């Protein structure tokens, strides 16, 4: 199994949705990310230059999401995946985004996308 880096339960507020009320006020979104990365070099060297800087990636995701006005969660997930894949050490990424309370009687609703470097041109 490949090495992985996880970002778990990143809770952000954003405009997301297609209904008028969703376009007026920010809602919570919960983001979970799993990046497949070869961590052998960083594990041996103990040098940040050999590692994926997940702090930088997280800051970029926060900036994107909190300032976005996407209609679809699918689009947001695709853009988050693109940010992760900008780091050449990330081989592939799984992004799960949920909208808590979006459906009556459900804790949340969301999507999961899996992207590889080949899926995302221009990265």
Report on this model:
It is a single chain. The chain is of the alpha+beta class and 123 residues long. The chain has one domain: GTP Cyclohydrolase I, domain 2 (2-Layer Sandwich). 30% of the residues lie in helices and 34% in strands. It is built from 4 helices and 4 strands. The protein has a 4-stranded antiparallel β-sheet with strand order 1-2-3-4, covered by helices on one side. A hairpin with a 7-residue loop joins strand 3 and strand 4 (108-116). The longest helix is centred in the middle third of the chain and has 13 residues, at 54-66. It starts with a strand and ends in a 7-residue tail after the last strand. Keywords: Folate biosynthesis, Isomerase, Lyase. This is 7,8-dihydroneopterin aldolase.
Residue fraction in strands = 25-35%
Helix fraction by DSSP (H/I, runs of at least 4): 25-40%
Low-confidence stretches: none
How would the global form be characterised? elongated
Structural class: alpha+beta
Short description:
GO terms for molecular function: dihydroneopterin aldolase activity; dihydroneopterin triphosphate 2'-epimerase activity. This protein has 123 residues and is an alpha+beta fold.
What are the SSEs and their pairings?
Layout: E1 4-14, H1 20-24, E2 27-37, H2 40-45, H3 54-66, H4 73-85, E3 90-100, E4 108-116
Antiparallel strand pairs: 1-2, 2-3, 3-4
Helix pairs in contact: 3-4
List keywords for this structure.
single chain, 123 residues, alpha+beta, GTP Cyclohydrolase I, domain 2, 4-stranded antiparallel beta sheet, 4 helices, 4 strands, elongated, GTP-CH-I_C/QueF, EC 4.1.2.25, FolB_dom, lyase, dihydroneopterin triphosphate 2'-epimerase activity
